[in-house]
Amino acid sequence: MSADKNSNKELWDDSHRTWPLPNLPWTMKQNWHNLLFAHYPVKLDDLRRLVPEVLPLDSFNGMGWVGVVPFEMKGVRLRGLPRVKGTDQFPELNVRTYVSVDGKPGVYFFSLEASNKLAVWSAQTFYHLPYKRADMTLVKNDSTIEFESKRRNTNDFNFACNYRPTSEPFYAKKGTFEEWMSERYCLYTTNKKGVPLRCDILHQPWQLQNAEAEFKQNTMLYNQGILVADENPILYFSKKIEVRTWPLVRALE
């Protein structure tokens, strides 16, 4: 076997997942670059009012957690098709929390912002995700990422932040907060009837770094009814991860 094939086999090894992938072909490949994970504690009762009852909340140290995650998508393409220029690279911003269905820990999104019109439409249509279009920029200045987002047609959802890594890369240890928030291999949503759906994903374990950030503007939480218990977030950075996604399936069979 060639070195390239060996590398590809290692990249897409799924042995670290705690449940099997669906017996379906993967549908999309993408790379996530220059991610900031900014996490805020939220009281579980406050969080419960914002997340569909059918999705059981996860907690760490007795608190729910909401993450604000700016990053850049690159290399986006559908299975069997080449990348389409103009739609394969764009900034994104998501606001998320953590749920588990049937023992499978995953991510639930309050909102997702993207600058790409086709990406927003596709995610809304095929994945039932709350994507919105926004005017966004991501600029890398040495080790600092300068990120700005303003949702279109409203002045209520704005985000501006400079962030950078402050440590060497590391893998999260078992039982730590960084493992709890990052090592999740699916996302959850609901359809119009309220049925919980799961989208499985595959990537290698996250390589994280400690981070620091200057928040110039962040209305993404309060304007969605998210009341944080501490306005000083826990910060981590990740340089890059390659991801494959699968079609939506019912979370409960």
UniProtKB/TrEMBL annotation:
Q: Which InterPro entries match?
A: ADC_dom_sf, DUF2071
The record's section on Gene3D superfamilies has: Acetoacetate decarboxylase-like
- Write down the Pfam families for this protein, in alphabetical order: DUF2071 (PF09844)
This chain belongs to which protein, by name? DUF2071 domain-containing protein
Lineage, please? Bacteria, Bacillati, Bacillota, Bacilli, Bacillales
